[in-house]
Amino acid sequence: MTTTASVFTEASTSRFARIKEGGLDLQLHYNDVGQGAETVVMLHGSGPGASGWANFHRNIEPLVTAGYRVILLDCPGWSKSDPVVSEGSRSNLNASALKGLLDVLDLDRVHIIGNSMGAHSTVAFALENPERIGKLILMGGGTGGPSAFVPQPTEGIKLIGALYREPTIENLKKMMNVFVFDASSLTEELFQTRLDNLLARRDHLENFVKSSTLNPKQFPDFSHRLHEISAETLLVWGREDRFVPMDTGLRLLAGLPKAQLHVFNRCGHWAQWEHADTFNRMVLDFLTH
């Protein structure tokens, strides 16, 4: 099989859009891959140096081959999108940014895949724009609030904070080593690429720390409103997730009327990367049936 990297590159699919939505006036970066009557938007997590492409490059080709258009958004304050300081809900800020991008691209209705912060943002978008969502896939996030079993903040969230404050290769390795279940899959090249990405935008790092100081609870607890979301939803979790505990997935399953939950054993916070082939098959089956 031809690999995604040989068919699509980050550079060849790179696009920018100016959005004005909900008080935001920003230039957003996104990748636009494939063509099709239906569009899948992918929203990345909050780790330093994250981007749509970095989070989801293992998941693009099967969707494009199946006839979907794929949009990978870099949220405000990440990668090549404009910087921003979030004094309120980052979930809702990202939801407004997504609405602005969909308006620019003239997309009325999309499926959304959200990982971690991206899952929180997906839920916020679904609550604000129910008529614009198809099916939802949430991994490692979707609502805030305390875990019933794991002390807060979790080990992983503490390591993210440390990396934002001190962006060193040592702190990056500490975070990434608990990001996935099997750290042997992490290469020095991957570490260096991620470090280069996060150091390229020190303004993003500084603004994230400033935002967290202004409002420590960037990602609200939507549990009391989950019943409002009528979209079919696939929840995907790693049993060994050390960033967002698995009981968060159970709360989402209890609150979302049309949800189903799949749990991967031997899997951390990045299910779409650690179990890419199975994840891709599962997503395609969920979207097409």
TrEMBL record:
This is 2-hydroxy-6-oxononadienedioate/2-hydroxy-6-oxononatrienedioate hydrolase. One of its GO terms (molecular function) is hydrolase activity. Residues 40-280 form the AB hydrolase-1 domain. Its EC number is 3.7.1.14. HAMAP family: MhpC. The record marks S116 as: Transition state stabilizer. Pathway: Aromatic compound metabolism; 3-phenylpropanoate degradation. Pfam families: Abhydrolase_6. Belongs to the AB hydrolase superfamily. MhpC family. Signal peptide: none annotated. The active site is at H269. Homodimer. It catalyses: (2Z,4E,7E)-2-hydroxy-6-oxonona-2,4,7-trienedioate + H2O = (2Z)-2-hydroxypenta-2,4-dienoate + fumarate + H(+); (2Z,4E)-2-hydroxy-6-oxonona-2,4-dienedioate + H2O = (2Z)-2-hydroxypenta-2,4-dienoate + succinate + H(+). The record marks R194 as: Catalytic role in ketonization of the dienol substrate (substrate destabilization). Catalyzes the cleavage of the C5-C6 bond of 2-hydroxy-6-oxononadienedioate and 2-hydroxy-6-oxononatrienedioate, a dienol ring fission product of the bacterial meta-cleavage pathway for degradation of phenylpropionic acid. Keywords: Aromatic hydrocarbons catabolism, Hydrolase.
